[in-house]
Design brief:
mainly beta
């Protein structure tokens, strides 16, 4: 996989979420959301060749380049 460029930072309350542009394009945009413990760097962009629109991936709180709020985190509840 090619290296990702720097993400756009989306500020939400006390956290900063990283939004990565995986590929520019025209047409309908696609937003990829990862599973628990993953991040945007794990996306195999070769699988996206059939999508002609722009493709973005979001790092959830505490994953990848996104921050985690003080005292925050994920709990089994």
């Amino acid at each position: 996989m090619n290296a990702l460029s720097d993400p756009v930072t989306l500020q939400h309350n006390r956290i900063a979420l990283a939004l990565w542009q995986l590929r520019p394009g025209r047409g309908r945009p696609l937003l990829l959301l990862h599973g628990l413990g993953e991040d945007a760097t794990k996306v195999d962009r070769a699988e996206l060749d059939s999508w002609d629109g722009p493709v973005h991936a979001l790092d959830f709180t505490g994953h990848g380049a996104s921050s985690i709020a003080d005292g925050g985190g994920y709990f089994c509840e």
